[in-house]
Amino acid sequence: MATHQGTWSYRDRFGDSFGRTYFRRFGPGVVSSVGVGTYLGDPTAAVDDHYHDALVTAFESGVNIVDTAINYRCQRSERVVGRALRDADVERSEVVVATKGGFLPFDGSRPDNPGRYVQERFVDTGLVDTDDLAHGSHCIAPDVLDELLDRSLDNLDLDAVDCYYVHNPETQLAVRSREAVYDQLEAAFTRLEKRRTEGDIGGYGVASWNAFRVPEDHEQYLSLPEVVARAEAAAEAAGNEESGLTAIQLPFNVVMADAFTVRSHPTDDGPASALEYAHDQGLSVFTSASIAQGELARELPEAIAAELAGDSTVQRAINFARSAPGVTCALVGTSRQSHLAENVAAGTFDPLGAQAFDAVFE
Fold first, then answer.
1. Where is the NADP-dependent oxidoreductase domain (predicted)?
2. Is residue 348 in a domain?
């Protein structure tokens, strides 16, 4: 697992190559504020090799956070992350590894009949109860998350991961009430508290797409205060003094800034945005879609681009995400070494200060 000593040693090795606040606190140590995501790409050996080379280069260039999920590229992304960790000139204790469970994964390639695959591999074997399924492939029941976590550890060839996310729990809102989904999350968190006690995960979080950045009346809305309360209840049920809920992940970029602008999370002082509430609660925020899955590589709004540092549009887009108050790290899907170098170099520029970032929205 990543440690205080390991991550700070990594920061000491690379920190002078980057701008102000490039490394930020997370868990027991620090992480780079530019991270590597592994979602995009076909499930092929050729893409595996591209990811491997990009990840090795990232780990050896100042990026010590990688984000993946068991369903990404039919489990291939986790497997290539494990291979890259073994091959890179870094210690395991220096690198933060995050993965996710919730979507039932294919194995190596997409089957001709996905529905039949899920039925035969997960339902008929007794692992998944059809009552717990949403959209035929999403399940966050505790026993299922247990199994998915074990498979992820095997794929990664690791004894533990630093952060384990419950993946897109808002998917369950398609088939059950919001209160029932909160109950599901509390049961999932209780199991993850147990796995944290056993040393299999350093902490856990919630990775979402819509849940935390939409208005309260949106059909996929989930309340961050309620999620935090359910994690606290889970910790108490597991006999742990403090909750292991350490992070959230959500989309954030120039054209999807809802996590900063939409105030939908109730507090005693009035509604707060997801970024504001997470910061107040001490939760780390990892941004997905930081360059809108490549769309922002071509063009940024002129007024915003003028305020951001960077030699390229991509670098300025990354620096927008990592400049947002409360953001720990901007994740960027990177399967090419040439793209990786450009992305990492974004960190050589200082981010906007909080006042300058706020001014972008005035």
1. 35-359
2. no
